[in-house]
Every structure is written in structure tokens, then in C-alpha cells.
Amino acid sequence: MKNKRKWFLHPATMYFLLMVAVILLSWIMEIYGQGVILPQSGEELKIQSLISPEGIRWLLRHIITNFTGFSPLGMVIVAMLGIGVAQHSGLIDVCMQSLSRGRHSRILAIWSVIILGILSNAIGDAGYIILLPISASLFYHNKLHPIAGIITAYVSVACGYSANIVLSTMDPLLARISGEVSETIGISQYQVGTLSNYLFMSASTLVIALIIYLITVKKLIPQTGASDYTINTNWNLSRKERRALIISLSVGLLYLIIILFSTFSSFGILRGVSGNLMRSPFIMGILFLISFGLGLMGMVYGLCVAKYRSDIDIIEGFTKPMRLIGLYLVIAFFAAQMFACLEYSRIDKYLAIVGANMFYNVDLSPLSLLVLFIIFCAFINLIMVSATSKWGIISFIFIPMFSTIGINPDMVQCAFRIGDSSTNAITPFLFYMPLVLAYLQQYNKQANYLTLLNYTWRYSLYTLLSWIVLFIVWYITRLPLGL
């Protein structure tokens, strides 16, 4: 009997087809003269065809820069260098084995990944890159499938991107846009500060963490099955390994103290020129700082256990993740072209503005309108995933509209953040989707977007529903959204 191979669409092929779809759609929409008025400037935004002479010239001129300028590309490569040394030296395996020996280690592993994933937005997008491979290793050593670790980390970062018990990088950016809109329309008495949604988002952290944990335990882990890893209950570190682990962790702790001192002390060279953390060297370079720290500890561990005897051995550690990076580069090339074509055509902005303008014809109560707005943001996020770009456009429509029925800008911003985060895990237009698919293909060669969607749709749906319920309760009880 012939062996029938199950047909599947490779992620690179998917992004190529999406690019073709964007090109054809831009051509059709330009033929019909589609355009909208930008609410912030009053200028007309017209769809630009990629099949027109100018569009073809643009694409040919920018194919290389579309790829090299793809924002996650450099971040992924830099992060993988540090992770590669930490894995190659054996440091990550030893740490994971040490964390997998307790009676409740499996529960602690799941909760640790979820909490770290949700809190990771405090340092930007580093969670997508750093946390996923480490979570796969942690789940593997706890006799759980590595794919379950990748998915748990991914949905924690993606769906919980707005929730946090500390300030995230998004808080000041969104608040600044909301403040500008409020001043423009003459309602500057409603101050929208960085902490304007803090209390609600802090409470949301607990709700979302619980939702993700329940779905992971009840659905994801049974769906993925167990790993083939056999834990040796009699396993113990040798004296050399124990000493190497202590030394490497001590070096890591010292490195962390130096970074924190350089950021938060009066010395503060890693703070911004104005003294804050927004766009400071600490925030802008956090991914490199984490990667360098992991690589440093891995190198120290490898030297202490005599696995590294020369610089050649260390360089071999740097090259360990190259196979993954090679696969990622192929997927990222086509994804970068698709994202660039979508931005050039302006289709995403057109759809966001057209959808937002439909709200002017809706006659509902303020709460019902806010819930409908959350759902709208969740749907438009499937196409336009950049929160700042999206809010920079639709805030000029919705903040004035809601202000006429007595809804303050901070409430509108809070509703936007709920919808904007909930569907991050299921959109193929997420910038980090190519990396997630590359991680999945390490453990399942036929994994593609539909495979990922099969795992993540529950998380997005239940996160959205539970977040809406929490928002309704908050609205009815008139609890303060922030400080």
C-alpha cells in the first residue's frame, strides 16, 4: 500500500499566497477608486495598486530592504545567539532538570510560563523570542509535549499583551495618543495618563492567567499528549556540574545587579536622556541584554564543566540554532514582503476606517456600544495588528464619538486594549507569527498556520469573552480604571 502523505501548506507558501492576495486586492480596489478620509488630518487615503507601474517599481526597488528591514529579523538572530550558547553548553538542560524534580513541578512549570508570558510585555516583544524555546524545554523535562510549552508561552504573551501588574511599553504610547485626541477635540479636562488603565489591567492579569491555565490543562495538554522524555528519578548533578551551575548562576546574578544598577541608580546610564525609561537604552536594548546574559552564563557553565576548551567550541555554540534560523529566514522573507505590500497598499488602514465609520449608524446604550467596540477591535486586529498604528487612526473616530454620550477617553482606550490583545494569537498578520511557526516545525515538520490555529482559537475566544465580562462588571460597579 502506498504511503499517503497528508497534504499541508507550508508557512512560507501561506505568506506568499497572502502576498498575492494583497496585490490582487489592491489592484481591484484601486480600479474602483476606493479611498477614505483620515480622521486625524482630513486627508484622503487612497488604495495604491501593486500592479500599477509605480507599484511594480516600488516592489522591485524594495524587495531586499523589505526583508532586511523586517523588524523582528535582527531581534530573532541576536536572541538566538545567546540561547544557542546556553543550550549547547548544557546550562538550560541542567536548569530544566533541576526545576522538574518536585512533586508539583508540572503545575509550577505551567504557571511559571503563563505568568512570565503575560508580564513579558513590560519589556516589549522579547517574550515571543526568548520565552518560547525555554518553555518548550521546560515542558519537555516535565514529560509534557514541547509544542504545549510553545503554545502556552505564545498565547500568554499574545492574548495577555495589554494585561500586566506593572507598566508595559504600550501604556505611555497609547496614553499619549489618547491625550492628543482629547486636546484636539477640546476635552482636555479628561486627563489620560500612563496609569489610566492600571487597576483594570492588573485585575485582568489574574483573570487571563486563570483562563489560560484552565485551557492548557483541560484542552491543550491532552491534545498534544506527553513527551517521550523519561525522567531519571535518581538523577543527581555531579560535583563538577553543581559547581559549574552555582558559578554560572552567580555570574548571571552579578550581571543582573550591574544592569539594574546602571538603570535605576543615580548613575543610570541605561536610562533615557530625560531620566525615564521610555525609549531608553534599557528598553531599546533589553533583548540584547537578555541574550548576552544567557550567553555569558552558558559560556561560564561550559568552561567550568570543560565542554568549552577554546573559542572554537564557544563559536560552535553560537551556530547551534542556525538550522532553526535558516527555516525562519525562509518564512520571514515571504512574510516581510506580504507585510510591506499590505502597508504600501493601505488596505489595512482602509478597512479599519471604513469599519469604524459604521458605528455612527448604530443606536445602542453606552455599555452595549462599548462591548460592540471591543468586538470590532478584536476583528480589525486580525488584519492590522500594530496597536499604536491602529489606535493612532481609530482613536480620532471613537474618542470624539463616545465623548458625546458621556464616555471618557480612558474608558474607550481600555475597551480598545481588550479587543486589540485578545485575537493576537490567531492572526496570521502578527509580526512574530513566522517565528512561532518555525518553532513548531522543530517538533512537527507538517505544522502550519492551521495547526497553530487549532491550538489557539480557544484561548482567543475565551480570553475575549472573559475580558468582556470583567469590563461589564467594572463598568456597572463604576470602579476606577486607573490611578
Tally of separate domains: 1
What structural category do the secondary elements indicate? mainly alpha
Round the mean pLDDT to the nearest integer and report it. Answer: 87
Separate helix tally: 20
CA radius of gyration is 24 Å
- Uncertain stretches of 5 or more adjacent residues: 1-5
Biggest β-sheet strands, sense, barrel: 2 strands, antiparallel
Distance linking N and C termini? 68 Å
For the secondary structure, the number of strands is 2
Please state how the strands of the largest beta sheet are arranged side by side. 1-2
List keywords for this structure.
20 helices, 68% helix, disordered N terminus, mainly alpha, two-stranded antiparallel ribbon, 483 residues
Describe the structure.
The chain has 483 residues and is an all-alpha fold. It has one domain (69-226, 238-477). Helices cover 68% and strands 1% of the residues. The protein contains 20 helices and 2 strands. It has helices spanning 11-31, 53-68, 71-88, 91-98, 105-119, 126-141, 146-159, 170-184, 198-224, 239-264, 281-284, 286-304, 311-318, 322-345, 347-357, 366-380, 387-403, 409-422, 433-443, 449-477; strands at residues 35-37, 44-46. The protein has a two-stranded antiparallel ribbon with strand order 1-2. The longest helix is centred in the last third of the chain and has 29 residues, at 449-477. The protein is globular and about 70 Å long. The chain starts with 10 loop residues before the first helix and ends in a 6-residue tail after the last helix. Mean pLDDT is 87; it is low at 1-5.
